[in-house]
Predict the structure.
Amino acid sequence: METPILVNSADPLRSCAELPINKTGQTILGRDKAKAETKNRRNPGPSWGYRFLRVTDKVAPEWLYKPLRAIGTAIAMAGMPAQRAHSRAYLEIMLGRRVGLLDIFRHFFAFEEALMLKLRIANGRDIPCRYAPGSDDCREWMEHGGAVLLGSMHVGVSDMLGVQIGSMHQRQVFLVRQRVENSHDTEEIESRFGRFVKFIWVNDPGDVLFALKDAASTEYAIAMQCDRLEHSSRSEVFMFLGKNRRFPFTIYHLAILFCRPVLLSVGTSSAAGHSIVHSSPRFELIEGEDRAQALARAREHFQAFLRLVEEVLRQNPYVWFNFVPLNSVEEDVCNERRKR
């Protein structure tokens, strides 16, 4: 599972504004440096696992290969006790009951199947993209382009959206990511779609500042994940799954800093083999509006998006691909905010 990274320093946004733009015209963190800093960071599974899945997908019939993938998923799940525990905790909230190993297996297998879609794109397969109702702003951007900030979460096939933006719509996008050792899937995507999709490999927090300003000086979209807190410098508390939980909020500070609109989306897959984009309305800065007013609107915008994500998860609880603790509950923070 790739780990996205946003910003991480004492005050990265202020620092970012003070930094000169790198004039090299290249992506920000060199491949050699990024690779050197991936030591001890890796996806689960053997280093040859992704290549094996790709090769087998080319030669094995699906009626045979899918049961083999299920067996492999069960074996992998047996060796991941922490991820099983986090899956159980999440599913019990979503399903409202005690869950068993079958439920947890369905969660793991849904992740594996989403991974297979990404590997099939790397193998050259086209996955048609459709839009859910209410995603008109995202569709318009896909058709006409423009410099925006794209936010997503580890939900369904959201990892494929950047690739589909580049390959199908020929929109140029930077995907902000943290490099890990066995990231064969993203390496293949970078190789195949490098004309449109570029990765900002940011393994040193100090380089994030140059990375974001360098990317913001182009007409590329900048895409980042907005659900995990581990590398986010700015966060806020929002209602999600019945509790007040803390989420990254950096993307809106960057929107104000770089004068870019924000589009938030997640992707799911359909039985027909399409990816379906579920998107928020476009968040735009208003001329003459002060920072506090913009951030107040941004909070409403993100809360509405979280309600959309909840609707997606209610339809299919097994597409939440954060096998880590759920975002922390912070009732005291919200109670203090209500008092003020």
In short: Confidence is low (pLDDT under 50) at residues 1-39. The chain is about 45% helix and 15% strand.
